[in-house]
Design brief:
This protein is mainly alpha-helical. It contains 28 helices and two strands. The protein has a two-stranded antiparallel ribbon with strand order 1-2. Helix 13 packs antiparallel against helix 14 and helix 21 runs parallel beside helix 23. 27% of the residues are buried. It holds the Pfam family Sec15_C. This is Exocyst complex component.
């Protein structure tokens, strides 16, 4: 029973598996059906599977047959309709063929008519072209007839004009006709004779302008000077921030008439022209000094004769030669301003003539040619000025030369020549001017600093007080309340230096006038020059005073006080520059004065010099120290040299009352540290081989004297025992040896709260070895029974033990 059920179950599973394989065969691509068939052959029921497969195939065949039966009638109907359409298509084809044949027959007449129209249009165009050609030839014949008549009557200039029209306008239009070639052959016969006559006139013209260039330039520069004076009168005062004048805004010097120009706003150019206003005295122009008619005639003739380029090249070549002669400066030009003036007059005259030719002729010289000459002139002129101006060492001479160059540049700028490079070169001369000023002020500052007494300025009356306050910006309410006589905290060099800085600023401002710079550029120039004065000249002068060998502490203290007040005055110098340039310090890119840095550096140098001098004085006192390191006596007072040293320090720090608190405190702390370091070196120096405890006691008294000085507060501002910390290393070392507290030191070594934290084992070992040597020598000098003294043997043994442990600590410390 159970076997039957199991067989039935297996049969059902096999049937389900076969059904799944059949569905997979139906739905799977043929290329991937291999694994599926393999699963059938791997099983044991492939016979039954084949039966099922045959059954499934028969079912599909029946379904296909049913489907074909269902659609067969529609297929038959479609074939029938298609046969009907074929007949209709044939009928349509026949109709289209018949229509095309009729259209071809009817269009033959239209094609013939179109051909006739084409021929008519071609004839009409030919007739029109013939008329046009005849119209072109008739003016040529008329012009040639006119030319023949003018040549017969020897009217050469009208003939040349006619020839120009004929050759360049009419003949090119009909040049392919034979009669035109006859005309062309007859035209060139007159050219050579006319060229020779006109060239002679040109040479005379070039000689004329060469002779008159100097006079023309002088006249032009006078006119420019008059115009500038007129501008100053109209404006009532010069405006530093004016921009450079353009040609259309200035008077045209060498035109036939002096034309008034449209005024520009003050903001644009700094010039306010008055319309219809002319000078009372008329200045002659270039046409009044030179007759330009020969060059005009020569240019006209060469242009008509088609030799304009030859004429232009010859003219330009000759003028280039003249330009090179003009631009060659005399060797002694730098000796006087007249030499520079004559040089500039020749250059201006040359370019005024060229500008006149440029604007009165069409193409004899062009802008490119003028620009090329001007570039050459600029380079040579600037090179000559650089060379010759370098010989000027007097600021006043440099200033006069600058004014002459400005007039030279303004004159040429009226004619449209770019003069930016000249003004750039003036900026280079400005640097030279600044250098000459700096050299001059070097001597001024040196004299001021050398003659100063480095003592506060005493005043005995209100008039003297106001005089000092008027020279230097100083306000102190407490000082004002004090009765006379009283003293300013600074010495005389403070107001003198302050006023000389202002004088330097004025000197810089003079050079910036008429340079057509904006207020911002002038402000920047003045500030940079002033910064050079402060950072280089004044700073070096102060440093030289501070580094003098014979400078005293009192002078150094006064220098610190003086530089402090000068540092405070820098804001007033800023305001002074702002007032004369009208540029607010908040403006973007405004250069700041480096006065604060300069005076701070000088003050720091003076402070360092004070620290150095104090240390040197301490070293001088320490050289008087004469310790008896082998004494056995216990002293009861400090050494004399140290008492004197402490007294000197007290008196010195009393002078520091006017110094800033931090400076005095730093000086005091530096002195105490140096003193402590020097005492430590004195105690540990290698020359001292042996040391007694009695000498150590005396040394301890000296250190106590130093600590007492530190506790007394020689300079206010220290917190509690801060100053005493300078001697903490000495104090712990001496306490260790005097109290002989080795057990505590060795037990607590390395701990943060160690009693002898500042005692280095190497230092302790060095000092202990000195004491040990002294004890050993003392034992050898005693009697033969010294070795039986148990206390001394125990103490020596203890020293050896401690020394051994100290060596171990030293080794571990290094590792």
């Amino acid at each position: 029973m159970e076997r039957g059920k199991m067989a039935e179950a297996e049969s059902l599973e096999t049937a389900a598996e076969h059904e799944r394989i059949l569905r997979e065969i139906e739905s799977t691509d043929t290329a991937c059906i291999g694994p599926t068939l393999r699963s059938v052959y791997d099983g044991e029921e492939h016979g039954r599977f084949m039966e099922k497969l045959e059954t499934r195939i028969r079912n599909h065949d029946r379904e296909i047959e049913k489907m074909c039966n269902f659609h067969y009638q529609g297929f038959v109907d479609s074939i029938t309709e298609l046969l009907k359409v074929r007949g209709e298509a044939q009928k349509l084809k026949n109709q289209v063929t018949d229509t095309n044949r009729k259209l071809q027959h009817e269009g033959k007449e239209l094609v013939i008519a179109m051909e006739e129209l084409k021929q008519c249009r071609l004839q009409q165009r030919n007739i029109s072209a013939t008329v046009d050609k005849l119209m072109l030839c008739l003016p040529v014949l008329e012009m040639y007839s006119k030319l023949r008549d003018q040549m017969k009557t020897k009217r050469h200039y009208p003939a040349l004009k006619t020839l120009e029209y004929l050759e360049h306008t009419y003949l090119p239009q009909v040049s392919h006709y034979r009669f035109c070639k006859v005309m062309v052959d007859n035209i060139p016969k007159l050219r050579e004779e006319i060229k020779d006559v006109s060239m002679s006139d040109l040479k005379d013209f070039l000689e004329s302008i060469r002779k008159h260039s100097d006079k023309i330039g002088e006249t032009a520069m006078k006119q420019a000077q008059q115009q500038r004076n007129l501008d100053n009168i109209v404006l009532q005062q010069p405006r530093i921030g004016s921009k450079r004048k353009s040609k259309k805004d200035a008077y045209i010097i060498f035109d036939t008439e002096i034309e008034s120009t449209s005024p520009k706003s003050e903001q644009d150019s700094g010039i306010l022209d008055v319309e219809d206003e002319e000078d009372d005295e008329e200045v002659p122009g270039a046409q009044d000094l030179v007759d330009f008619s020969p060059v005009y005639r020569c240019l006209h003739i060469y242009s008509v004769l088609s030799a304009r380029e030859t004429f232009e090249n010859y003219y330009r070549k000759q003028r280039r030669k003249q330009a090179r002669l003009v631009l060659q400066p005399p060797s002694n030009m730098h000796e006087t301003l007249d030499g520079y003036r004559k040089y500039f007059n020749q250059i201006v005259g040359f370019f005024v003539v060229e500008d006149h030719i440029l604007h009165t002729t069409q193409g004899l010289v062009n802008r490119a040619y003028i620009d090329e000459l001007w570039e050459m002139a600029l380079s040579k002129t600037i090179a000559a000025l650089r060379t010759h101006s370098s010989y000027c060492s007097d600021p006043n001479l440099v200033l006069d030369l600058k004014n002459l160059i400005v007039l030279f540049a303004d004159t040429l700028q009226v004619y449209g020549f770019p003069v930016n490079q000249l003004f750039d070169m003036l900026l280079e001369i400005r640097d030279q001017y600044s250098e000459t000023l700096l050299k001059k002020w070097t001597g001024i500052f040196r004299n001021i600093l050398d003659s100063d007494n480095y003592s506060p300025i005493p005043v005995t009356s209100e008039e003297m007080y106001k005089k000092v306050v008027g020279q230097f910006p100083f306000q102190d309410i407490e000082l004002e309340k004090q009765p006379f006589p009283k003293k300013f905290p600074f010495s005389e060099f403070v107001p003198k230096v302050y006023n000389q800085i202002k004088e330097f600023i004025y000197a810089c401002l003079k050079f910036s006038e008429d340079l057509h710079l904006s207020s911002t550029e002038v402000d920047d120039m003045i500030r940079k020059s002033t910064n050079l004065l402060l950072t280089r000249i004044l700073s070096n002068s102060l440093q030289n005073v501070i580094k003098r060998k014979n400078i005293g502490l009192t002078e150094l203290v006064q220098i610190i006080i003086n530089t402090t007040h000068l540092e405070k005055s820098c804001k007033y110098l800023e305001e002074f520059i702002t007032n004369i340039t009208n540029v607010l310090p908040e403006t973007v890119h405004t250069t700041k004065l480096y006065g604060i840095t300069t005076f701070k550096d000088a003050r720091h140098a003076a402070e360092e010099e004070i620290y150095t001098n104090l240390n040197q004085k301490i070293d001088q006192f320490l050289q008087l120290a004469d310790y008896d390191w082998m004494t056995g006596d216990l002293g009861n007072k400090a050494s004399d040299y140290l008492v004197d040293l402490i007294a000197f320090l007290r008196s010195t720090f009393a002078v520091f009352t006017h110094l800033p608190g931090k400076v005095a405190q730093t000086a005091c702390m530096s002195a105490c540290k140096h003193l402590a370091t020097s005492l430590m070196q004195l105690l540990l120096e290698a020359e001292v081989r042996q040391l007694t405890l009695g000498a150590l006691q005396q040394f301890n008294l000296d250190v106590r004297e130093c600590e007492q000085f530190a506790r007394s507060g020689p300079v206010p501002g220290f917190q509690e025992d801060t100053l005493q910390l300078a001697f903490i290393d000495l104090r712990q070392l001496l306490d260790l040896f005097i109290q002989w507290d080795w057990s505590t030191y060795l037990a607590d070594y390395g701990q943060p709260n160690c009693k002898y934290l500042r005692v280095n084992p190497k230092t302790a070992l060095t000092l202990l070895e000195k004491i040990s040597r002294e004890m050993k020598d003392t034992s050898r000098k005693n009697n033969m029974f010294a070795q039986f003294r148990k206390n001394e043997r125990d103490k020596q043994k203890l020293i050896d033990t401690v020394a051994k442990q100290l060596r171990g600590l030293t080794g571990s410390h290094h590792s």
